[in-house]
Amino acid sequence: MSDMAAPSTAPAELPRAKTDWLPLLLVPALGLLALPFVGSPSTWVTLTVAGLAMGMMIFLMASGLTLVFGLMDIINFGHGVFISLGAYATLLVLGPLAGWALEDSIGLNLALLGLCILVAMGVTALAGAVFERVIVRPVYGSHLKQILVTMGGLIVTEQLIHAIWGASPIPIPLPQSLRGAFVFGDIVMERYRVVAVVIGLAVFIGMQLLLNRTRIGLLIRAGVENPEMVEALGYRIRRLFVSVFIAGSALAGLGGVMWAFYRQTLTAGMGMEVMVLVFIVIIIGGLGSVGGCFVGSILVALVANYVGFIEPKLALISNILVMALVLIWRPQGLFPVARR
Amino acid sequence: MTEPLLHLSGVHTHIGPYHILHGVDFAVPAGELTMLLGRNGAGKTTTLRTIMGLWQASSGRIRFDGSDITTRSTPDIARSGIAYVPEAMGIFTDLTVRENIVLAARSGPVDRNRLDWILGLFPALKRFWNLPAGNLSGGQKQMLAIARAIAEPRRLLLIDEPTKGLAPVMVRSMIEAFRALKASGETILLVEQNFYAASALGDHVVVMDDGRIVHSGAMSDLVADKTMQQRLLGLSLDAHQ
Amino acid sequence: MSSSSALPLAFDETRRRGGILTSLLSSDLPRSRALSVILFSIFALLAATPFLFSGSQPVGTAAKICVFIVLVASYDLLLGYSGIVSFAHTMFFGIGGYGIAIALERVSPTWGSVAIGSAAALGLSAVLAIAIGLLSLRVRAIFFSMITLAVATAAAVLASQLSEITGGEDGLSFQLPPALRPAFRVFSEPVFGTMINGRLLAYYLVFAVSLVVFLALLRIVNSPFGRVLQAIRENEFRAEALGYRVVAYRTAASVISALAATIAGALMALWLRYNGPDTTLSFSIMIDILLMVVIGGMGTMYGAVIGAALFVLAQSYLQVLMGAGSAALAGIPLLPNLIHPDRWLLWLGALFIISVYAFPGGIVGRLRQGKP
Fold first, then answer.
1. Which of A308, B63, B86, C100 is close enough to C269 for a disulfide, judged by CB 3.0 to 4.6 Å?
2. For the segment A246-281, what is each residue's pLDDT rounded down to a tens digit?
3. What is the per-residue pLDDT across C332-347, written as a single tens digit (0 to 9) for each?
4. Which residues does chain B have within 8 Å of residue A10's beta carbon, measured at their own beta carbons?
5. Rounded to a whole number, what is the distance in Å from the CA of A150 to chain C's nearest CA?
6. Is B220 on the interface with A (CB under 8 A)?
7. Domain match, B138 and B231 both
8. Which of C79, C147, C354 is closest to A153 using CA atoms?
9. Domain that holds residue A134
10. C355, C359, C360, C366 alpha-carbon torsion, rounded to 10°
11. Closest approach of chain A CAs to the CA of B122, in angstroms?
């Protein structure tokens, strides 16, 4: 890939690439702002870790949606169903391997989680392929129909989940060694949240590498900006889009697994419930921007955690307030994606 | 006479309810530079986009290199060897200059000698090599757009108004670059409003008006005939020096 | 989508001929004999329900149909005429319901409270609709869909949390003004075999207000304002280029739609003498509205009448049928699950997708195609 070396070293007086730091500073600024209100530093750390974990899970669920939108101008209101489907897919693993969750062995427990993730991503990738072909493809180009039809797809798939797995909530056990918390003095960090942060960060870094260091990634970024020109360069963008749609669905499935173990309960509507946060996050981040989605996820989750601790009644509308403030500041979101 | 590289016959194009091209016929011979001239709204851009498959011809035929490309998809047309530089240039501003060129070279790394040749044509690009293309000036973006089109050898270049909005000094260096491209044997179909640039470069000239071809012939004939310039383009070469 | 002329027509020109009915319907006639017959039948049945059927269930169903006609028609103003998808319509529906419920329960069961509750609800709805519109429609119409979804969800959570005001999950039951109570008698003797009591007055209050609001909505979509909305729906950029302020028009449409939904919510609460999350606020009602407007026919107003009537009837009676089917298939794997009455949304969802693809004009569009 990087076999094209720079033809010459760049002179020093070159204009520098402009990085938009301001939105990135929001996160630490928010953390610092919350500290005096929270009071105790140890509680603050606990809240911050919890917020980060929540943020990572939201990011996993939202990243695919924002990419699909950026690339093909498709808004998929049915995205939440992949979250639910991914969550329910854990049953395919937890059913036969229930014993692994009870063993107090980190290796076995993590293997179980990994297996759940693999199966869920497989199931949701397949479902994504079907959804794209049957539901989305006939309505390219019309946002109104996309919203309606994908909403219809969501209703049908949710109902199918009910028909297959039953309508009542299903409890699922968190593997033994992921329960409990790490305690450092006053600071309490739930183990599963730490796992969620690690997985979320790994996916984010992986996506950044893919988007910035591979030809596919370059094509996706180019396609977000100007799909027509990508086609005029000889690339079949439709194929690229279908791959991204499938990958985005699989990521939602991964997020669904993480979310399911976090809640330890499965309901068919769980995807739709979290979609509200997902939409807020991708609006805040700027539709189509993966980096914005990442920052937005953390922002929303941290605010929810801090406000939930300081003034629980306000937590209900804190996300809406954050979104409103961001949109007043930057009507296109934190990282507006240049289009055409 | 051998078949021209590109041949449009009776091409009509509709965009939504509007009928833009009304039976366009012309040919682009291999190895030469054909200028496509005409007033604003004459249908020049639509012609290029129709060739590229970005808008579908509603009737008529487009033949390229001996085969019919009228109904092919844009990527297929590009793969058959046509490069397109749209009027808005289509630069990916979020990608670096290098990444823009990497994407243009579909079959892998750009040949070292070819890259040196391209950067010789457009030395400015060298300085911005690893910076986002969004930082480039308008003229530099135009250079990048053309560099992208020639990153790999192509059979035909379609270029839409490359001198539009450029400073005179930039127009001159652009003309130099096209001279060099011509000398290297590229076949080019160039849309131009700048008659000075057109007359300096063109082997052939095709003039459009109102979605139809109203004149086609040798550039030198048009340059020599002031009356014809006045009639076809509403201006003469003198006015534009 | 069926579209009439995309550009504003002179309103008076379209209204010159025709009599009082044409004038009432704002010259937007059904334009299909079958459709006219169906619409007239629905109107006549709703007008005469208390005298035609005995028992409380038919009247209850009829009242629900009236309310949903207003609710769905006001949604059609957004979806069908303005081309924007809102998920906050039930929020405004709920605000209307809570306005009445809180005023009558917390203040007093009088007409004064009805007025205060309605006015407060309408005011709140207008403010919220303006805020949402200005925040989201400035950038892209799809922001509007996502933001309405977020706001509506927050509102639903808020309503169930603030139980000291809203009654939480249990909702609020309340007394109506005396003239609307069952014990109230207009005449001591029955008329045509039906006692003219407060309950009947309540039904006709719901019926009359619904009719007036529906006709008002019909007038709005056929006014120059409505024509501009449709022009924006057809081509936002051209409308902007022609000098129409797209954001202002769309926000105005969203406010009108919200106000009508608020009235519907107030009527619903008055009829039920109760308001709670499940009767007005829940997301499943939002889905019902979507189904009704799409199946009835987007952008036609009359689609709302047919969609609401059909859907409410089906909701009341079709599920019984599915229950019977499910019981009959017991023993076969999965199949009984699929036609279980709880799964009726599955089939409606499928019908919905097919409608959007194949019959974007819905039932009304179909009937108008196959005219007379």
1. C100
2. 999 999 999 999 999 999 999 988 998 888 899 999
3. 766 777 777 777 778 8
4. 127, 129-130
5. 8
6. no
7. no
8. C354
9. 51-268
10. -130
11. 13
